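Objective 1b of the project was to move from sequence-level analysis to a structural picture of ligand recognition. The entry below was assembled by the postdoctoral researcher (A.K.) and checked by the PI before modelling. It contains the amino acid sequence of the target and the SMILES of the bound compound, flavin-adenine dinucleotide.
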Amino acid sequence: MKIAIVGAGLTGLSAAIALKEYANVVVFEKDDVGGLASSYCREYCIEKFYHHCFRGDNALLEMIKKLGLSSKLVWKVARIGYAVGGKVYPLNTPFEILRYPHMSFMDKAKLALFTIRSKRRDYTKADSVSVVDGIRQELGDRLLEKFFMPLLKAKFGESYPEVSYAWLLARVSIRSNRKYSGEELGYLRHGFHQLIERMREDIEIMSKAARIEKNAGWVVNGERFDAVIYTAPLPELDEKIRKAAGVQDVKYQSSVCALIGAKKSITEDIYWTNVDRGIFGAIIEHTHFMPFEDYGEHVIYLASYSSPSGWLFNAKSDELRKLYLKDVARFGLEEKDINWIEIFRAKYSGPIYEKGYLNKITPYRTALKGLYIAGMTSKPNYPERSMNGSIKAGMEVAEVVKADLEV
Ligand SMILES: Cc1cc2nc3c(=O)[nH]c(=O)nc-3n(C[C@H](O)[C@H](O)[C@H](O)COP(=O)(O)OP(=O)(O)OC[C@H]3O[C@@H](n4cnc5c(N)ncnc54)[C@H](O)[C@@H]3O)c2cc1C
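Corresponding predicted holo structure:
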């Protein structure tokens, strides 16, 4: 039995791990193994895009354990903040939240109640309501404009008006596990590249873009297979095959991240700062989460989202470097403080959870016998695509393939 897997991201690798003892598995990868979770290595390795995990990430934590990396897993309360007009306000403890000057006491109380209630709500009912309308009706214009709008723009770029209210409710409900001092996040000390390296061991990976053809059976790059598991972004699947497979189109967003090695930090101790305006929507200070000594310099991400056709995603790296440097200077980090800066981008970095998205979630089986799809648009990746969701999707699609092929 021969199975082709397209894409060596976390979905493809976990499907390969689950299937390798039952079939001859070949994984095709056109770029870096690890996909969106791959790393950039210099004296140390660091994810191209910021990554952390959560206590409830069962599939990811199980994979870490199975591959002997549990001793590397560390948990820490990561401090968060909100930058308004270039000034950063910490927003972790009830005291810090009460002291925050850009929101009335009433609005803070409304927000707290909304967070508590979201845990018990059936979010599916809000799938046809836009996030903007939902927030306006439930929380009012002021919270929408002053609090949610900058966060939505930072998360979805110009596509935010299309996002469903169901997404927000689901997202708040899975993320309202805060302790008194903030939310505890996990990280694999010295980097998630260690997980990718262990996952890829004993897996045959062809460093080539896969070209899938369907005739009597399935052919990938000229080689015949009994089944194909496609884990790459849907828009990159051949249109004829996509249509015949009955796969619904999903809109994606792109990510652009400036990764910086710096001589000084931006905030005193905050890991994640949302930013109200400017070219980046968040500052993520990795060395306020992991020890500075592991890197010997401050490691900072400036994160932006764009549409795949947006100017930000398509701008030249030199132009972006200049723009990010200019904007981060507002926070006191000047060019002389910066050792190096790299721009990373991903064209299809996650689905836009638009209105009606719940009906668009991609099933593992397609209308074409022998073609399976898993990845960021699979069920375990709602309401947030994640390493955990992709590992789960990879394992679940493997079970479906095993059942169909009776292996
Ligand atoms: C900015 C950012 C921050 C994130 N932060 C977190 C976080 O903190 N915590 C968390 O849990 N998750 C985070 N994620 C999400 C996480 O990285 C992804 O959900 C997960 O890695 C996706 O894995 P995947 O295998 O489903 O998809 P991908 O990683 O996209 O893998 C698909 C692979 O297919 C390859 N491919 C495409 N076309 C072809 C072809 N024709 N032939 C061969 N190969 C092909 C691609 O190169 C890619 O390697 C973040 C993502 C981004 C972009």
